[in-house]
Predict the structure.
Amino acid sequence: MPRTALTGADGAIVATYLAGTREGVPLADDVQPATGVAPELVIAAALEWLGGHIVAGGTALGEALVAAGAQPRRRARVMVRDLRADPLPHAPAAPGITIEQATPGNTDALLDAFVAAYPPGHPDHRAGGDRPSEREQLRSLMAGEVIGVLLDCSRLARERSGAAVGAALAFDHPGEPPLAGPWLGELFRHPDAPAGTGAALLAASLAAAGAEGLRTMGLVVTDGNPALRVYLDAGFVVAREEFAVWVP
């Protein structure tokens, strides 16, 4: 994916970034200062040219932008799993749970679990969304309109009643690892699902990804999300820390 140049007052390139959108807002992702450029020049250029953008980069950049008036959005870790280097994790299905492939047609079946998985107080809680907007977010995600096409290694968990209680949704995110490539965009379960459902979904999705010949799986996890332990146990490693802010 081509990078966009961020220029200073004299027209010289001070940094580059990946242009996109996030939650309907313009995004300057993976901001990388140019070699030898002073940090204050990057900050000044971001404030000058990236107003109204979510700006994501290293922790130092985010903290400097916040000190200059930007609003903090998300501290997170970008993680990656080499699907070839180590044996893939094995996690037996949780009691009463069966796992199957997830498809875009599962949107309505998964909606209850998707909403309930992120209650108030959860670091990824989506404040202010009503049920129709939550459904549209899940629909557009699974339809491949947000991150990329839903991969066949995506998995869904059902309880004995047939109700869908969680999913591991993987996508073909355009670009190269660790910030793109095969990408676990969502791993969630209903709070009432049996313990171990999330780990079982992740293990099943990674096993399917490896069987399909995928080389890596990436993801981003918000600081404070208890799923971090699940990812570490499954062999993911931290590739970089990220601090996303909104520049007014």
The first strand starts at residue 4 and ends at 7. The longest helix spans residues 197-211.
